[in-house]
Amino acid sequence: MHVQHGARRSGAAHVTLLTEGTYPHSHGGVSVWCDQLVQGMPDLDFDVVAVTGTGREPVVWDLPAHVHSVLSVPMWGTPPEGRPPRGRARNRLTAAYERFLTALLDPRAEDGFPPALYTMARAAADGTLSAFLRGDRAIALLAAVWNRPGLPVREAAPTLHDAVTATALLEHALRPLAAPPPRNGVAHAVSGGVAVLPGLAGLEQYEVPLLLTEHGVYLRERYLGYRTAPYRWPVKALVLGFFRLLAEESYRRAALITPGNRYNRLWEEQGGADPQAIRTVYNGVDPAAFPPAGPEPGVPTLSWAGRVDPIKDLETLIRAFALVRKEVPEARLRLFGGTPRGGEAYRERCEALAAELGHADAVTFEGRVDDIKDAYAAGNVVMLSSISEGFPFTLIEAMSCGRATVSTDVGGVREAVGGTGLVVPPRDPARMAAAALELLGDAERRRAMGEAARLRVIEQFTLRQTIDTFRSIYLELPTRVRPSTEPAAQGEALPLTAGSLSG
């Protein structure tokens, strides 16, 4: 679905935001971040290429006039239009796809991934890739490749059903290649993974510089998610191989990478990113929009805000709360946030866990709240229990509201909190409960921590700093890319000259 919105303006700098499952079709931290950038730069023109589920998702954000268009690229809806290639085009795509599969399964052949990917991108633009991948030839190619002697996956005896499953997963994952790639300005992928695919195509075909921002580590989250995915090992090996090589290609080719914390930077450097092309840019909030929350609730209360999702690990939080209530029987746990489509079963599992532990009366799922500040004000202590995070908005918003926090030590959490809150290991209910009890039992310490947390936000994590940094990047990045009439060599990063964008 392509939605035209505001009119283009002559002379305005242009940015194409590349998103997946976030802005402008859903709420959440990354969507808030995108909206902040767009609203904060009315002098720039924006387009959005949004990878979505079915393509029927409504736009849920009020888009300003300088957002020219929104293109929804569905991964799971009706497949892209087109027909299978014929003749030489079929032979060319067959050879590229075989090289692509070999790169995913054989470490000795990984240098074949970039050229194969870009050949497939051209086929996607012609409308032939998806149809090819939905045909028997693609399935037969995979069955032949992963049964070659010497490949570890062969020892798992992959079946025809595995080949059908894995080919379907790749077909869906590669659908964003069919989106028209950016032709000018800057392509800004606001996550790794499949959202980057149109940006890589735009870089390869039109030399549009690619800016990559990772809030969480996309590859790490795929590893976590596929641990419990209902697929056999050959399927997991193939799909995770794709995500790993796509991450490495994205890191190599991006003109600049702006992780939301130093933890992400370590993953990016390990994935092949040039350290000189990485610059950490923290998320920011407007302290005036998140003022001190005021009096604490009279009943000892732990509050949490976010989307109800397995990666937020509410089960650990509920188990920790059960331990807290043994010491403080009157305690309450209030959970604020919506349940995304498809996440209903997880919420039901969490509700069942609270009931099983005997605390259904004290654990409340409040749903989305009109003013997120109310979620932070509802607790004496604000909790964060995630197993993966970037630089979480809910944490710095709660800090700006002057609330003491207990958070899991993931992503950029420790960088955000500093000494103004307690940080505990993930998936450890006992440690989480001990930290919560420590703060619930000491009102003066909570007050001091809350004041220090708000001061830390004002000094280091303001929205104005974030917007000013990205404006300078958007305006300067096209002038920092090597001028050339030829596409960059496969796998070669586009260097920046020495200056303010590096480091």
From TrEMBL:
Q: Which SUPFAM superfamilies match?
A: UDP-Glycosyltransferase/glycogen phosphorylase
InterPro entries, per database record: DUF3492, PelF-like
Residues in DUF3492 domain copies = 14-276
GO MF annotation: an example? glycosyltransferase activity
Pfam families, A to Z: DUF3492, Glyco_trans_1_4
UniProt superkingdom: Bacteria
- Sequence segments annotated as region (Disordered): 482-503
Q: In its UniProt entry, what is this protein called?
A: D-inositol 3-phosphate glycosyltransferase
Organism equals Streptomyces dangxiongensis
